[in-house]
Amino acid sequence: xxxxxxxxxxxxxxxxxxxxxxxxxxxxxxxxxxxxxxxxxxxxxxxxxxxxxxxxxxxxxxxxxxxxxxxxxxxxxxxxxxxxxxxxxxxxxxxxxxxxxxxxxxxxxxxxxxxxxxxxxxxxxxxxxxxxxxxxxxxxxxxxxxxxxxxxxxxxxxxxxxxxxxxxxxxxxxxxxxxxxxxxxxxxxxxxxxxxxxxxxxxxxxxxxxxxxxxxxxxxxxxxxxxxxxxxxxxxxxxxxxxxxxxxxxxxxxxxxxxxxxxxxxxxxxxxxxxxxxxxxxxxxxxxxxxxxxxxxxxxxxxxxxxxxxxxxxxxxxxxxxxxxxxxxxxxxxxxxxxxxxxxxxxxxxxxxxxxxxxxxxxxxxxxxxxxxxxxxxxxxxxxxxxxxxxxxxxxxxxxxxxxxxxxxxxxxxxxxxxxxxxxxxxxxxxxxxxxxxxxxxxxxxxxxxxxxxxxxxxxxxxxxxx
Length: 467
Prior knowledge:
- It is a single chain.
- The protein is an alpha/beta fold.
- The chain has 2 domains: 11-369, Rossmann fold (3-Layer(aba) Sandwich), CATH 3.40.50; 379-464, Immunoglobulin-like (Sandwich), CATH 2.60.40.
- The chain is built from 12 helices and 26 strands.
- A 6-stranded parallel beta sheet has the order 7-1-8-9-12-17, sandwiched between helices. A 5-stranded mixed beta sheet has the order 19-26-25-21-22, with no helix packed on it. A 4-stranded mixed beta sheet has the order 11-10-14-15.
- A hairpin with a 2-residue loop joins β2 (21-25) and β3.
- It comes from Embleya hyalina.
- InterPro entries: AB_hydrolase_fold, LACT/PDAT_acylTrfase.
- This is Lecithin:cholesterol acyltransferase.
């Protein structure tokens, strides 16, 4: 391994949530996470606004996502981010990750269609992984996606729909609205409550495809009869852009449709979700229409306080717990539940501690840490009982059922008083170990498992002098 290269074997790519990337247009910062910038510069909403429809990069070529928001970032009434820096610093310190080597941050223009960023990952990740494999001298290194909020949707689309499944070790989502979040419906329909700049900010947010890709696809809108309906139901008059709402649902369902109906055990090990819990969270909506001062109908979306099922109003304050489960899960599989708010979930100490342990387990298989009783039946040894001094001694070592032998093979003198160091066999090729130029004498060949030396297996061998 190249000196100074990080010790963690895989490539970790971190994706922030909506509003979690600093954006610049023509060299000027148009978003840094602080919503009060709108108060101080009336031109900011115009500079943040899309020039096209957000479905392609070309009209937005002058906007650049330059870095993640390391501190606090808030898109009012939609979502927030906090403590990314704390999370990544802890991962670097605990796992030996190095920024720019095997920890890559992926800031993105969070206003655009998330499919664009998934495609960008497909373009960049193979190059990044090739560079890391070469630098670490580890041709089996894979990618671990670590993503907060909307970033998890981008990672999942890249892996399941756009073609990165083959090189991905795991996707770990933190507070990701896999099934959408009812809270996201208020901004495009109802606007952002606040000061005089709210109308301009609302107009900007309403035009973003990404905002509509956060909308809930499950029935959550209570009609006049008390029935829960979906936002895409034609009978639900919500004042939203119907086509953008429908496309947002298509985006989420593309991920669902790309996942095999019956994932095997290996696939179950490749998807993990950190889910915020125990916080009051909007899970149902009521839509009403009133007559405005100019005589036009004004649509209002409000949260319904009464849940229909126990736990409906629990989540991380933004994403209901049920929605933070990956869309194909019918029951929890690789989920961990943490009492925390969506904004600070990625940097919460219990979450960071879990991530350190999870990433470690993804890199270092547990089969190296088996119980002694099980290990004893795993080691097999095949070697001759006679040999000629000066010739190479070939030994075969392996497990009895699956896997590969991990440990060392040595040639030791039988005489305990002999002042001779054991000879170590060379690294194996398909289970074959070699001791070059075995010395004459009475010896033991010993296969010693790495995880439990007491489970060693040995055989006697007589090495006769050459004629």
